[in-house]
Design a protein that fits this description.
By secondary structure, this protein is of the alpha+beta class. The protein is built from 14 helices and 35 strands. β4 and β5 form a beta hairpin.
């Protein structure tokens, strides 16, 4: 304890005044014995004792009053220390950045960490005072951010009370950048960012800091326990081709990757649930910071070609305080093989010069049996033996030499010259019944002959090809080549590619075929274009089937696309799209917050239903004329069902369109970030929790005590 005015302690000498008064008041009178008074004094001894007590109390009250008056004038104070942020009250601009990622649901001392963080944020908001302009920015990825600061602290307090963990990982860097933007628009001199976060390493972007060397004052409130051990299912794969152990043709292997984000070993029980039934369990021991793959073998329910499955963990909460990432879903389906008939329009004796060399390698990479496609290659001469139905043999002769089209899902015409009208009619009949056909031109293209016979198979008429490198020197050839641009990113054949897709965009096209008038097809659509605006890929419907025209070659005669990484997934996705069969075991991984493309087909109404009643309905203008719809309300992990209504009015669940959404596994790693990842603070304020000495002045309480003592003295005098 200290004193602001220690000289005032001289006033303690006044303590002798009430003592002197008390002693003077005790002057003894001369004793004169009187018999009658002895009797009276004997009866008043109790009253005399009470008077002595009152006098002593009065002495004590007066002495303390004098002492406290002196202490009040000396202004005593003390100090206390508390751990917490330095908050200054008054006019200022402040932003509270709060980690609301799914990791904020980590249970600490029996309650979610976010609850503790929200309580601390409310205390800071109260300490800032009503004159401060404040905003609350959530640190989860792609969270909605405020557009301005406000003094409506009551509304901000309600926001903090209602705060719940999201299902997204942390993006602390982006949240800090948004906080800096809000503070830049403020006219206040004092600007502070309060970061209340678990400070996980995965939430920072080292190569993209939120601000430069100068920025707002940054105060971090970590509230982080010493350790945050966590077990999580970070990946779940299905392999319908693996069916050992007697699972038969309906067997599927599930590979779950379990990660231990802790410096100590852990043990957990792993279970597999298929169609709401637990089908397998197993124990898994993981070392510190170790990942292991747990494989389960199971069969789908009888009669089902697809089913939802989930892998779950059951572990001790001491080793795993975060339960939300202990489950991961997957859509398991039996393999559907695509049967493809390749027609070679320019066969060669040298294998790598053949028209189908690159196409066959892409459809059957490494000539593996599990590629998902069954490929048969024929020449144009052999195509003359095609029959839509092998049972329709002429003249009663067996059709052993005929090629039955009904045994194939897709036909590819690669640099095939114009076919006779009879063959085109058979192919058109097969496509109309539901088949898929790909037409790619080449040096054997005769535009006039194609116009006479091939139009029933084309989405658009072909015109003479152009050579963009004609007359160019070898050095100029690549610079004058065309590239793919403006492809339909939502279309199923482009599902494996990113928005920029360098594996497609880097391919060079030296010669392409131009297009003429459209033919009698429905739903014609240009799926991709070249840099000169010419169409590259065109799709249309012919009855119940589909036709697709690629305006360059499928080998390296006109383009180098076949030697680029994008050729294989493009070809495989194209044949599966035309065959209306999905790439089983290779479905896109959908994470919370991402959008999902759903093939609408000929549906008249499409409804998506997810967990927590998340969903959407597509009908009318939202669906009419669209081959695909984009669903973006993936805010919760789990299973999303799709219910479709066909043109006849029949409504049922479309298993082939259902999908699952999972957490981003990056958010499960709660490893603490290095202090170097934090942006620089605009002042010399401490970048972490600090032990602050707070002065507490005691003289106010002593002054109140003086008043109480004076009141007590008055009461005692009156008595």
């Amino acid at each position: 304890m200290g004193f602001l005015a220690p000289l005032m302690l001289i006033g303690t000498l006044a303590l002798g005044v009430p003592v002197a008064i008390h002693l003077i008041g005790r002057r003894r009178a001369r004793i004169v014995k009187f018999a009658a008074l002895d009797f009276l004094m004997a009866t008043k001894r109790r009253t005399a004792r009470r008077l002595v007590i009152r006098e002593r109390l009065l002495l004590a009250v007066r002495t303390l009053a004098c002492l406290f008056v002196a202490l009040v004038l000396a202004k005593p104070y003390t100090s206390c220390e508390r751990k917490g942020p330095e908050v200054t009250r008054g006019p200022q601009a402040a932003v509270l950045v709060i980690d609301d990622s799914f990791a904020s649901g980590y249970v600490v001392d029996g309650k979610p960490w976010l609850k503790k963080a929200a309580d601390e944020a409310r205390r800071i908001l109260q300490q800032l005072g009503p004159e401060a302009e404040v905003a609350i920015v959530k640190a989860s990825e792609n969270a909605e951010h405020p557009t301005e600061l406000t003094r409506d602290h009551l509304r901000l307090r309600d926001q903090l009370i209602a705060l719940e963990p999201s299902a997204r990982p942390a993006d602390t860097t982006r949240a800090l950048a948004r906080a800096s933007t809000l503070l830049t628009a403020s006219s206040h001199q004092r600007k502070t960012v309060f970061l209340i976060s678990l400070l996980a390493n995965t939430g920072f972007r080292p190569d993209d800091p939120p601000w430069g060397k100068t920025g707002p004052r940054l105060v971090t409130i970590e509230l982080r326990p010493h350790s945050l051990p966590n077990l999580a299912v970070v990946e779940l794969r299905v392999d319908p081709a693996s069916s050992p152990g007697g699972t038969g043709s309906r067997g599927i292997a599930f590979d779950a990757v379990i990660a231990n984000f802790s410096s100590v070993a852990a043990k957990t029980e792993v279970s597999l649930t298929v169609a709401d039934r637990v089908v397998a369990r197993g124990l898994l021991e993981l070392g510190p910071n170790e990942r292991k793959t747990k494989r389960f073998l199971a069969t789908l329910p009888a009669g089902a070609r697809a089913s939802d499955a989930v892998v779950s963990l059951t572990s001790d909460r001491a080793n795993d305080g975060l339960a939300v990432d202990d489950r991961r879903w997957v859509r398991a389906s039996l393999r559907d093989e695509v049967r493809v008939l390749l027609v070679d329009g320019d066969p060669r004796t040298v294998r790598h010069d053949d028209e189908l060399f690159y196409l066959e390698a892409a459809l059957r990479p490494g000539d593996r049996d599990d590629s998902g496609t069954v490929v048969r290659s024929i020449t144009v001469e052999e195509l003359a033996r095609i029959e839509p139905d092998p049972k329709k043999a002429k003249d009663g002769k067996p059709a052993t030499a005929a090629i039955p089209l009904d045994e194939f899902d897709v036909v590819v015409l690669a640099n095939v010259p114009a076919l006779p009208i009879a063959q085109v009619a058979l192919l058109a009949q097969w496509v109309t019944a539901g088949g898929g056909i790909i037409v790619a031109p080449g040096d054997r293209l005769d535009v006039a002959a194609y116009d006479r016979t091939m139009l029933p198979l084309l989405p658009q008429a072909l015109r003479d090809p152009i050579d963009t490198t004609w007359g160019a020197s070898p050095e100029e050839r690549d610079s004058r080549a065309l590239h793919l641009v403006k492809w339909e990113a939502d279309h199923p054949i482009f599902t494996p590619f990113s928005k920029d897709a360098p594996e497609l965009a880097d391919a060079k096209f030296y010669k392409i075929a131009l297009l003429g008038p459209t033919t009698a097809t429905a739903d014609r659509k240009v799926l991709a274009r070249f840099t000169n605006g010419a169409a590259a890929i065109v799709e249309a419907s012919i009855g119940a089937g589909r036709t697709l025209l690629f305006t360059s070659t499928l080998d390296r005669d006109w383009t180098d696309l076949p030697i680029h990484p994008g050729f294989l997934p493009l070809v495989q996705q194209t044949v599966r799209h035309l065959a209306r069969k999905h790439a089983v075991g290779q479905e896109a991984v959908h994470l919370v917050g991402g959008s999902v493309t759903i093939a609408a087909g000929d549906l008249r109404k499409l409804e998506v239903r997810g967990p927590d009643n998340i969903g959407a309905v597509f009908e009318g203008d939202r669906l009419e004329g669209r081959a695909n719809v984009r669903f973006g309300k993936t805010e919760r992990p789990g299973i999303y069902h799709v219910i479709g209504t066909d043109p006849t009015g029949g409504t049922r669940e479309r298993d082939e369109l259902g999908f699952v959404v999972n957490l981003d596994p990056r958010g499960s790693d709660l490893t603490a970030a290095s202090p170097a990842l934090l942006p620089p603070s605009g002042t010399e304020a401490d970048a972490g929790p600090t032990d602050q000495a707070r002065r507490i002045e005691l003289w106010h309480a002593l002054a109140a005590a003086v008043l109480l003592l004076l009141l007590a003295e008055g009461i005692l005098v009156q008595r």
